[in-house]
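User: Um, any thoughts?
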Amino acid sequence: MKIAIVTDSTAYLTPDEITANNIRVVPIPVIFGDQVYEEGVNITNEEFYAKLATSKDFPSTSQPPIGQLMETYEQLAAEGYEAVISIHLSSSISGLINTVHQLAEQMADTIKIVPLTPI
């Protein structure tokens, strides 16, 4: 069985770790005022902390769009993966894992998604 690993940018994996382990990383939206960034895509950790030091507003986060998650899982299925271990923050910190559970049910005929949270 060909199994993929998906996580989100809150795992803070290095590019080497991502590449070496063939991990798919879904970026978390970070919001400063009315500007939305995708963590690890159009804002680096260094840029985030620089903005944090100078911004008058404390940043917030959001879940990735459900379509982006579905697209990730569909792409993995198209690449021949039969299952995905999808590792995200606990539901007490983020609603993302609940969304992944819902997608696991919706996409059961496409790919098996196993949502997990770190211990």
The chain has four helices and seven strands. The mean pLDDT is 92. The first helix runs from residue 15 to 20. The two ends are 25 Å apart (CA to CA).
